[in-house]
Amino acid sequence: MSAVLTETPGPGAGHAPRRRLPRGLAWLVLTQHRTLTYLYLAVLVLGPLWILYQHHRMAGQIDAGISGADARMQLAGNSGFDQLAAGLTSLPVLIAVFAAAPLLAGDREHGTVQLVTTQSVTRGRWVAAKVLWCLGLTGVAGIVLSVLFTWSWRSHREYVMTSWLDGQIFDNTGPVFPALCLFLAAAGMTVGLLVKRQLAAMGITFVFCFAVQIVWAEVRDRFAATRTVSFPIDSGEPAVLDNAYEVDRWIGTADGKLFGWGHCAEPTEAASDACIKQNGIVNDVVEYLGYDQMGALQWTGAGILLAGAALLTAFTVWRVARTPL
Amino acid sequence: MGIEGKRVSDTELPGGPPGAWALEARGLGKRYRRGWALRDCSFRLPAGRICGLVGPNGAGKTTLLKLAAQQATATEGRLATFGVPAADSAALPRFAYLGQDKPLFKRFTVAETLRMGRELNPRWDGAEAERIVRAGDIPLDARIGTLSGGQHTRVAFALAFGKRPELLLLDEPMADLDPVARDEMSGLLMAEATERGTTVLMSSHVLTDLEDMCDHLLVVARGRLRLAGDVDTLVPAHTLVTGLAEDGRAPAALDAHTVIETRVQGRQFHALVRPAGELSDDWETAEPSMEEVLLAHLRAPDAPALLTGASDPDAEGNSAA
C-alpha cells in the first residue's frame, strides 16, 4: 500500500498525481464494504451458474424420453428446482439483513459516520454513495437472476407442478424479484438508519422481511381483476382454465344464480342429483386468474414494491442529509 | 513543551474582518430531549489561538465542539467558522474534528486510512500525514484495529492534520493515552499547530496540559459560557485574597468585588475575586495561576461570566462585520 501513498507529491509539486479508479466516495464505499462487494459478485457469478446447471439437468431429464403425465410425476418432486427457487426466495432477505441493515447502523454504532462526515464531503453525498452501492448491486443481482430464472422456468413450465402464482415462481421471476430485492434492501437501510445498533437493526429487518412475505402472499393475487367462466356440469373444464389459477368455484343455474361448491354435497349420489335437479343447477362456475394475466399482476406488484423502495430510500437520504446522525 | 509553545500575544482584534474569528457564536443554544445542553452562548475565538475548552462533565463542551463540527445542529442562535455558517458545506474543508473516541475504520490499514483522507479532502497533504505516521514508527500496512491507543491517536492526528485545517476541534484528545503517549501527542499538536498557524479548540480535564499549551480559554458550566478570553488577560483579571475571617465568615467588604469563591479555614479566609477597585490593605493578595482560576470557576459554576477583549461580540467596538 505504500506505493499508493508515494503517488501523492508534496505541496507545490508541479504535476497532478495519477489517481487510480475508483476515487473519492466510491473508493471509500467499495473499500469499507469490500467483503460484501465480493459476496455480491459471487452471487452474480454463482447464481447464474446454478440456474444454468439446474436448467441443463431438467432438460436432460425431459429429453431422456419421459413425456406427458409421467414427466410431470417424475419432475414433481424435483428437489433441485425447489432448492433453486428456495435459494432465490431467501436472497432478498439475506441482502436486507446482512447488507442493507448494517449499511448505516454499522457506521453509527462504530462512530465512523462522524469520521467520514467531518472530512470534506457532505452527509448527503456520503449517504447517496452508500445507498447507490447497495441498491445498485442489489438491482443488478436481482435483474440478472430474475432474467435467467424466468427463461429457465418458461422453458420447462409444463413440467413444473408449482403454480405460477405461487411465491416460488411469481416472486422469483419477471420484475417482481428485483423489485422485492430493492424494496427489502431499502427497508433494511431505513431500519439501520433509525436503529443505531447493528445487531438490533439486522434482527428488526429480519422480522420485517418475514412480515412482508406473509402480507405479500395474501395480496399478490389481488393486483388484477379475476375472470369468471361458466360451463355445463360434467362437461370437463374449458381450455381457458389451462394454466389458470383458480380463485373460487361455484355451481349455478342457467339464469346465473350461484350456489356454494358444496351446496349439493350429499351423502349419496342420488341425493346430490336430486339437489342439483331441485335447484336447477346446470353449470360449474370458476373464478380464475389466467396465465396471460401474470404479466399485469407482476408489473403491478413490482410497481408497488418499487414505489415503496423509492419512498424509503428518499426518506433515508433526506434524513441523513438534513440532520447529523 | 512549555510556555514557548504560545504563539500569540494578547493581541485583541476588535471589529476585525469575519475571517479573523475562527469561531463566532451569538446566542448559540442546543436543546436535547433531556434539556438544554448549551444556551445563550456568545463569544469569539480569534484565529491563530490555541484555546482550551474547560468545564465539568455535562457542561456543554462536547455539544459546542459538535456544533462547530457539523455533528449537531443548533436549536437557536448562530455559529460561524471563519465567517461561514458552521452548518454550511463550505465550512467542511476548513476544520478537522477529533471526537473523544477518535473513530477510524478498524479493518482499514494505516495506508488505506490515509488514502481515505486523500480521497475525501481536496486540500489533502499526504506527505505531511505520512510524516506524522512514520514519526511514530507505525507500519503503513498495519490494520487500525491492531494499533495501540497512542498509535491510534497518532493516525487520527495524521488524518486531521493531513486535511490542512484552519481550525482543529479536539474533544479530550489525550483522555485515553498513557503519560508517554500524552506527552508525545501534546508535542505533535503544538509543533503542527505552531508551524501552520492552525487555530485549536481543545476540551480537556487536565488543567496542567491546558496551562502548558493554551493561550486562550473558554470555560463553560451548566450549559452557559463563564469565561472567554486570552489567558494573559483572563488570569490577571483575578486576584487571590487572604485575610482574617470575621465571625467565621469572609468580610463583608469583599462583596464590593466580584467574588468567585471563598473558603474559611480557621481564622483565615481565602478568596478568588475579580477586583472592582482597590483591595483592602488588611488583606494579602497574590496573582493566581491559571489552574487556580479554572478550579475556582469549576467549583463555582454560578459565578458571573467574564469575556475579555475581543472575545465578547457584544462589547463596544466589537460589533460583527
TrEMBL record, chain A:
<protein>
    <submittedName>
        <fullName>ABC transporter permease</fullName>
    </submittedName>
</protein>
<feature type="transmembrane region" description="Helical">
    <location>
        <begin position="199"/>
        <end position="217"/>
    </location>
</feature>
<dbReference type="GO" id="GO:0140359">
    <property type="term" value="F:ABC-type transporter activity"/>
</dbReference>
<feature type="transmembrane region" description="Helical">
    <location>
        <begin position="131"/>
        <end position="153"/>
    </location>
</feature>
<keyword id="KW-1133">Transmembrane helix</keyword>
<dbReference type="Pfam" id="PF12679">
    <property type="entry name" value="ABC2_membrane_2"/>
</dbReference>
<keyword id="KW-0812">Transmembrane</keyword>
<feature type="transmembrane region" description="Helical">
    <location>
        <begin position="296"/>
        <end position="318"/>
    </location>
</feature>
<keyword id="KW-0472">Membrane</keyword>
<feature type="transmembrane region" description="Helical">
    <location>
        <begin position="173"/>
        <end position="194"/>
    </location>
</feature>
<feature type="transmembrane region" description="Helical">
    <location>
        <begin position="35"/>
        <end position="53"/>
    </location>
</feature>
<dbReference type="GO" id="GO:0005886">
    <property type="term" value="C:plasma membrane"/>
</dbReference>
From TrEMBL, chain B:
<dbReference type="InterPro" id="IPR003439">
    <property type="entry name" value="ABC_transporter-like_ATP-bd"/>
</dbReference>
<keyword id="KW-0813">Transport</keyword>
<dbReference type="GO" id="GO:0005524">
    <property type="term" value="F:ATP binding"/>
</dbReference>
<dbReference type="InterPro" id="IPR027417">
    <property type="entry name" value="P-loop_NTPase"/>
</dbReference>
<protein>
    <submittedName>
        <fullName>ABC transporter ATP-binding protein</fullName>
    </submittedName>
</protein>
<keyword id="KW-0067">ATP-binding</keyword>
<feature type="domain" description="ABC transporter">
    <location>
        <begin position="23"/>
        <end position="247"/>
    </location>
</feature>
<dbReference type="GO" id="GO:0016887">
    <property type="term" value="F:ATP hydrolysis activity"/>
</dbReference>
<keyword id="KW-0547">Nucleotide-binding</keyword>
<dbReference type="InterPro" id="IPR003593">
    <property type="entry name" value="AAA+_ATPase"/>
</dbReference>
<dbReference type="InterPro" id="IPR051782">
    <property type="entry name" value="ABC_Transporter_VariousFunc"/>
</dbReference>
<dbReference type="Pfam" id="PF00005">
    <property type="entry name" value="ABC_tran"/>
</dbReference>
